[in-house]
Amino acid sequence: WDRHLSGILMSVFFFGYILTQVLGGYLADRHGGEHVIWIAAVGWSVTTMMFPWSTTSTGNGAAVVRILMGMFQGVHYPALSSLLTQRITDGERSVYYGFVLSGAHIG
Asked: CA-based angle 72:73:75, to the nearest 5?
């Protein structure tokens, strides 16, 4: 792939990601954050495994898989926020948020 196609494939992930932010919070509030996170984790794991087989010289299949991957990962933080809000008391919530969200920066 050339630089242009690589840039498109990297950016379409975020297109899918921003599409599901509000939806993720809504579904988590309605059906429970643990269910939404579990389904999203299975979805992005499957799309990650599909990626090597979706690559072609044109990048069309890879773009579709990257959009789906972004959509599944886009629900994670809103669903996590909903889950922590429902399960953790007000006095302890900031400590838990800091601990849980620091994991993303650690790796």
From this structure: 80
Question: Residue 91: helix, strand or coil by DSSP?
Answer: coil
The pTM (predicted TM-score) of the whole model is 0.83
Contact 72, 40 (CB under 8 A): yes
pLDDT, tens only, 61-80? 889 999 999 999 999 999 99
Find, among 62, 40, 63, the residue nearest to 51 by Cα: 62
Helix/strand/coil (H/E/C) assignment for every residue in 15-68: HHHHHCHHHHHHHHHHHCHHHHHHHHHHHHHHHHHHHHHHCCCCCHHHHHHHHH
- Cα–chain-centroid distance for residue 54? 19
**35-63 pLDDT tens trace:** 999 999 999 999 999 988 888 767 788 89
Q: Which of 67, 38, 75 is nearest to 50 (CA)?
A: 67
